[in-house]
């Protein structure tokens, strides 16, 4: 029978043994020490939240996988932000939103990204095209190069996923 180990002790050990390595790896990926530090901390928070510390067999492989997913989310958010800012630049001066409105939009984008986390990219894309761009399902199918039935399935999957993410815990 395995001896139970305190999760805090496991996390502390994982953190001490791998923090510098992970931060260095992320620094090479993002070329920004502040982003690397934030992503490193977020990675360890995710690992701790997963509550599967005792099951990790290859810590660096596991940490780099979690960090890579967070990195993809960061890049996706930045691309979305850049697109939003480009749209803002095209607006006449009097119609530009306030800094507060921009912050609210940024928070909303991050919340949407968190809710959609874990879905395949095509499912996310179909959902965003439908809900944010208002595209009809056939237009989405044409743009993504899939059948209408696939788009319907993807949208259903995204809706169910969103409901499961926002439903109160029981």
Task: Describe the fold and architecture.
- The protein folds into 2 domains: 97 residues, no CATH class; 53 residues, Arc Repressor Mutant, subunit A.
- The protein is 76% helix and 0% strand.
- α1 packs across α3 and α2 packs across α3.
- The longest helix is centred in the middle third of the chain and has 31 residues.
Give the overall silhouette.
globular
Can you tell me the number of structural domains? 2
Mean pLDDT: 85
Distance between the termini: 32 Å
The succession of helices and strands, N to C, reads HHHHHHH
Runs in which pLDDT lies below 50 for 5 or more consecutive residues are none
E-strand count: 0
**Main sheet properties:** none
Radius of gyration: 20 Å
Number of helices: 7
What percent of residues adopt helix (DSSP H or I)?
Answer: over 70%
User: What proportion of the residues form beta strands (DSSP E)?
Assistant: under 5%
How would you summarize the topology of this molecule?
Layout (H helix, E strand, L loop, with lengths): L6 H24 L2 H18 L8 H31 L9 H18 L4 H11 L5 H8 L3 H19 L4
Provide a concise account of the structure shown.
The chain has helices spanning 7-30, 33-50, 59-89, 99-116, 121-131, 137-144, 148-166. The protein has 170 residues and is mainly alpha-helical. The protein contains seven helices and no strands.
What brief labels describe this structure?
Arc Repressor Mutant, subunit A, 7 helices, mainly alpha, 0% strand, 170 residues
């Amino acid at each position: 029978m395995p001896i139970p180990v305190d999760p805090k002790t496991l996390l502390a050990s994982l953190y001490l043994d791998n923090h510098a390595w992970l931060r260095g790896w992320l620094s090479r990926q993002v070329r920004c020490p502040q982003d690397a530090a934030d992503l490193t901390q977020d990675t360890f928070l995710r690992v701790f939240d997963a509550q599967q510390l005792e099951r990790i067999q290859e810590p660096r492989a596991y940490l780099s996988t979690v960090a890579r997913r967070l990195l993809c989310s960061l890049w996706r958010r930045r691309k979305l932000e850049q697109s939003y800012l480009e749209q803002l630049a095209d607006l006449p001066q009097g119609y530009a939103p306030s800094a507060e409105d921009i912050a609210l939009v940024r928070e909303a984008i991050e919340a949407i990204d968190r809710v959609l986390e874990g879905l395949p990219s095509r499912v996310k894309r179909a959902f965003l095209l439908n809900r944010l761009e208002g595209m009809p399902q056939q237009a989405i199918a044409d743009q993504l190069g899939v059948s209408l039935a696939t788009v319907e399935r993807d949208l259903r999957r995204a809706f169910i996923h969103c409901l499961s993410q926002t439903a109160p815990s029981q």
